[in-house]
Amino acid sequence: MDNLKKNPAFKMGCIVITVILVLSSLVIAPPEGLAPEGWTMLAIVIGAMILFISEAIPLAATCFMIIVAMKYTGVMPWKTIQQTACSSTVFFCMAGFGIGAALQNTNLAAILLRALYRLGKGDSRKMISAVCWLSAIISIFVSDGAAQIVVLAVVTGVVKAFGDPEPGTSRLAGGLMMAITVGAFTGGLFLPCSNSVNVAIMDLSEVISGTPMTFFQWALFGVPCGLILTIFGAFMLPRYFKPEQLSSQQKSDVEKLFSSIPNHFEKKDKWYIAITLVMIVLWFASNWVKKLDTATVAMGGMFLMMLPGVNLLSAKDYKKNFSAMVIVTMLCIFPLASGMSSTGAGEWVVNKIFADSASWNLILIFIMATIAAFLVHCLVPQGSANGALSATVIAPVLVGAGVPVAAAMALVGIQAGTGFLFPIEGTWQYTFGTGHYSFTDCIKGNWPITLVGMLCCVIVIPLLSMVYAGIGLIG
Question: Which cellular component, as a GO term, is one annotated location (predicted)?
């Protein structure tokens, strides 16, 4: 597949097909029940998916062409595109880069890993579990990528301490590296602030259904599902890797490394904990205090971290951690989702594909929606893009069947934010790029975790939805 994607003829073919598809929608009459603008919008979405999947042009180019096509085909006025592009998610992401960079300047990850290592008494299997938990805990408060960078720095030191084995020769090193990414994914489900994709999907809930989803409502589903997956991931990975045990000398070398870490929180660690706790309290309070929102609270937190006397974050740190590609994707994907809604294209697709869904069992609808969202993630392995597409097309099916919008968005969020099976998206490259585990390891070690994630969507979320709706926490 990779060789095919690198073939110039294949790339050009995908581009030509996309252009023909969009231009044809302007001259071919739309099917019954779909307005001309919706017909063209649908063609743009399909064309975007072709380019996302084929990687015929860089991701940024595809995102930009979505906006160009939407304006010049007339599916959405330029002013509306501008208004829908700049969502609160963009501001949250910009602040999140700083919060993640500030975490790298603390000792928190190293102190926590040392505590978990000693709790497991140096057992290799427990070391892998400990790293999974460490990555998950940190990912609750910062984005998946930032969590992996922080934990990878600490774990790399540990791997070097027990001998720095050649990539692919140590099952322990492989398990530790994979546990970083798996834990980042599972911890990234807990709260909206845990992953920028979560915030994007939350924002889209009002665009798609007219009903906003709050920080608290996300946590109602994200915390239990994230906890289940973290527990299972920390249990499963050591059993798959079957790591070699450390010798007495290796344990001594690891302990020597940990002895260089401060025994108590330093001033910068305390500042980070205090500011993060304040942000979390305000984020939860936003469920009742409508003036508060996830983005501005994060921006305020980053401001505090940069204050003189706190000095958790410098301009250089922020610039180093900033990812323009995330912002570009957000700015271009939100108008795409809004266009699917405003032109009626999303509703038409839902009505056609799920015309008989009113007679379906609700669990069957959850199963179909989960599989569809999983496939969208496999085909479009970029969190923001696949999250927006799934939220636009799949979530309305659940809402139309009577599922509360918060539950529908939680299902989409789990499948958009976790991609355990194939190391094909950017967030995997932090650890997959080390070479300590293989593509096959990823599939064999993670298919049970993938299955549990899907079971969360078809069993846990429906059950929680009924309970929460019964006591008035969601509507």
Answer: plasma membrane
